[in-house]
Amino acid sequence: MVLNKETPFEDICITSDMYPGQMVIQKILLFCAFVCIPWMLLAKPLMIQRARKAASLHLVNHNQLHSATENGDAEQSIHNNTSQTPVAQGQDEMDEEPMAEIYIHQGIHTIEYVLGSTSHTASYLRLWALSLAHAQLSEVLWGMVLNKGLTVEGWASGVALYIFFAVWGALTISILVLMEGLSAFLHTLRLH
Description:
Number of helices: 4
Mean pLDDT: 78
Low-confidence stretches: 76-91
Subcellular location: Membrane
Shape: elongated
Main location: membrane
Transmembrane segments: 24-43, 159-186
InterPro entries: V-ATPase_116kDa_su (IPR002490)
Distance between the termini: 23 Å
Membrane topology: Multi-pass membrane protein
């Protein structure tokens, strides 16, 4: 989907897509993913900047109201529309993080999220590759071990099949179920 490639058509299938309109939905989802990157990068810093401007404007209006009441000019509060409550005490502008730092932190978080998403996708592809390796390994075990027991002829075929089946069963359980299953479990657990 990310490579934006068409699925090759095969004769045994009626269509190359899993469902009608698959390519359109894939392109929409891919577009949404790429639009979310600048959104993650810029939305929070711009909202903080807007909130700081509003708080600064509110503080300026409050200071004008305070100076007007000290001077006895009550008309100024009506014209400035500053009958709101003052900004909370103890909030010093020097304590606020500079906007450059906020942009840098948001950039770091965005890069971390995009790289994490890519890494998780690669990890799920690794799980898929492990399942393909399991299939190949079971086919090799079938062909190299159990199939040998089926080719023995005569009265010894029952004994040979019994021995070959025991070897095949032990290898299947020890390699496929325990070792490869533990590997897939650990990958999945890490992702979750």
